[in-house]
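User: Show me an example of a complex going from sequences to structure tokens.

Assistant: Sure. Here are the input components:
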Amino acid sequence: MNKQNVAIWLYGSYARGCEDQYSDYDILAVCDHPVSLNKNELPILIPEEKISLTYYTWTEIKGMASYGSLFLHHLSCEAKIIYESEEVEGRLSAILNKLCFYKKASKDIRAFFTVLNDIEEAIKYDYSISYELSVIGTVLRHSCILGCYIGGFQKFGRSEPVEIFVKQWGLDHAIAQDFNKLYCFRLHSQRENCAIPLVNSDYLLLWCARVKSILKIIKEQVDIYERDMFATNYSS
Amino acid sequence: MKEICLQQITQVRLAITSNTDAYTYRSRLGRLIVTCLRSVTKKLGLPQPILPGLYKVPSDASLAIKNVINCCNKLWELSRVLSQPSEPLESRWKTGWEELNCELDLLYGYILKVDGFETLNQNLSLNLNGHSS
């Protein structure tokens, strides 16, 4: 691995100090040529099988900063430097310190609705309920991360964004309580030590309906948020 | 099932060419992979996978089925590069579109060559431009 222009950061549950049996070490590597990156070549002492590696190029990171990527906001809240080569010392920190507000919220909402519509179409034929539930779990978590962000709370943990959003909006507590069961399907796709419960299509339809109702709330908030942001930018 | 697999290939293409969102690309590609793998494993009488991922090619499978599985494995590897666990970037999907499209072309052809793929028994006509009616 070429260690020039490389920054390696830790984020996620290990960075927050709230890891559990299902946690991976979430590692971000930023470099010039990501295709040459291998987990076993990273300058860190973590077992390869415990690493969930995300890599971006510096150009991609700058592109993400231009729209205030929620992932970069996530990093700015909790990430810790593991290694930075001399040439790029402080470069990522400088980018994270100047993040703008997130500009793709309404596009995300449209995408989440599209993904839910795809699920409703897919279940008319032979389908994998586990896959569809893993997708719903991801959409719900990311929707709530966005909902919390819009509401002024930056929450990026596994279940905390859902818990906070449900509480903030006075929604059915069962959504937050059942979320960990739903998210098992997502975790199982990453780590097979997370067993998945036996469920049927009614369970899937229940979650589709729940997530759609949450998305409608977030969409209303996003519309207000973007109108305010536009007004702020226009007036300044 | 052949029609469903072909329709899902079209859905992946539509998502990318209509510039929807990387979330949609990622979920549709995952669904395509798991549907294709479930279809061929069902035909072979093997347990159906529940999630997309790398699948070991059975040595006694026909060439057409081996090609489908190999193609799904290639698409899975490709999707892991295009779609990072944290944030799927549209720019990366667009950069990788040519390679992805080639694999989708291959998969489309391989699926057509699989004999005796279970056909739909529902009163469904599929328009391969991406809509069901």
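The lines above are the inputs; the final block is the predicted structure for all two components together. Chain A has a mean pLDDT of 90.
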